[in-house]
Amino acid sequence: MKSSILVTGGAGYIGSHTAVSLAKAGFRVVLLDNFSNSDFQAVQGVRSLINAEVPFYEVDCRDTDGLFDVFRIEKEKGHVIKGVIHFAALKSVGESVENPELYKDNNILGTERLLEVMRAFDVENLVFSSSCTVYGEPEVVPVDENAPFLEAESPYGFTKQACERLIVNHLTRNPKFNAVILRYFNPIGAHPSAVIGESPRGVPNNLIPYLCQSVAGIRGALHVFGTDYPTPDGSCIRDYLHVMDLAEAHVAALEFLFKDKLRDKDTGWRAYNLGTGKGASVLEVIQAFEKVTGLEVPYSIAERREGDVVAIWANASRAKDELGWQTKRSLEEALNDSWRWQKKRPDSQ
Ligand code: NAD
Ligand code: UDP
């Protein structure tokens, strides 16, 4: 058994899949979540896939005492937490525009408090969930990690930029601290068992959950937000990667942190883009879904969505060169897994 790893946001979409990959790689996972965008079913799903004891704490990352208790209780049980993967955040771009204060409070303060408690317990290794939104509308694609942070397109994007800066500042004051910042592109798909997957609350904002619910008859036709963009077919381009590939990147990042203490040879932190390196347009995704499932996607062309980046995909060669990670699964496989998960949840609202 390797080290104990605290997974904040562990009941969420990416956190739950990562927990399973971590356990498969031999880590002992400890989950923490406040269920603001998830429920206990995901914890049960993780437990059944791991088939082992998985401690879960219902705690909010802004609650210093609650966080303190998690580290203390685990320590008293003889499991010193060696690293943290910090997924816990609110992630809806639209909601962040409506309520920017909530996003600042939840995402930035949550990260600040977590860092304080990690310091109190001498926990030196952090993997942070960032996003390609930190790049805004990039001037060059594929975008690499040296691209500047442009003005954030939304308060959500702003919180990711702010958290990255917070982590880098924390490093300057804490000589032993190491952090890997992972900038995700667009994760989709589900665990192939369909025991865990993405469970958005209410009407999904993201393309794939909406598309699946549309095909399942739970929603009306999918609205394709704009086909008049300067792209080959006029719809926006993103880099969609399978959530299991993304989960495995966290294992690679942790192993890298434990093996190559960044502090010893660098500034103590490193950022990595996580994507396939290939872009797909909204219309191409619809076609790929129809091809792989044999089902028709009901859709109509709608107005552009405010704040959408036109085209972005990753240059993920740094992750390949330094973490030894690259995506293995195709867009079709991811769409098939999303659909398999949707079929298991016919009542999803
Ligand atoms: P998710 O909403 O499924 O998971 C986040 C989890 O964190 C949820 O279970 C939620 O209940 C929990 N949470 C939120 N605030 C919390 C708090 N203050 N204390 C404790 N728990 C809290 O989202 P996800 O897609 O799994 O995203 C995970 C991380 O990855 C987030 O930081 C998100 O910003 C980032 N990210 C996601 C995407 C994406 O497309 N899904 C892309 C880039 C970055
Ligand atoms: N999109 C769409 N209809 C939807 C949801 C999304 O056409 O109902 C488009 C959106 O405009 C974007 C792409 O799908 O071009 C991916 O959007 P998503 O919200 O999934 O991810 P993000 O905007 O964070 O990249």
What does this protein look like?
The protein has 349 residues and is of the alpha/beta class. It has helices spanning 13-24, 40-50, 64-76, 93-98, 100-120, 155-173, 207-215, 243-259, 262-265, 282-293, 317-323, 331-343, and strands spanning 4-8, 28-33, 56-58, 81-86, 125-131, 178-184, 186-188, 222-225, 237-238, 240-242, 269-274, 280-281, 299-302. It has a seven-stranded parallel β-sheet with strand order 3-2-1-4-5-6-11, sandwiched between helices. Strands 7-10 form a two-stranded parallel ribbon. β1 (4-8), α1 (13-24) and β2 form a beta-alpha-beta unit. The longest helix is centred in the N-terminal third of the chain and has 21 residues, at 100-120. The termini are far apart. The site of nicotinamide-adenine-dinucleotide has 28 residues, from α1, α5, β5 and β7.
Which descriptors would you attach to this protein?
two-stranded parallel sheet, binds uridine-5'-diphosphate, globular, 41% helix, alpha/beta, binds nicotinamide-adenine-dinucleotide, 349 residues, seven-stranded parallel beta sheet
Residue share in helix: 40-55%
How large is the count of helical segments? 12
Q: How many beta-strand runs? A: 13
Helix-strand pattern, N to C? EHEHEHEHHEHEEHEEEHHEEHEHH
Class per helix and strand makeup: alpha/beta
Percent of sequence in beta strands: 15-25%
Distance N terminus to C terminus? 39 Å
Bound molecules: nicotinamide-adenine-dinucleotide, uridine-5'-diphosphate
Strand order of the largest sheet: 3-2-1-4-5-6-11
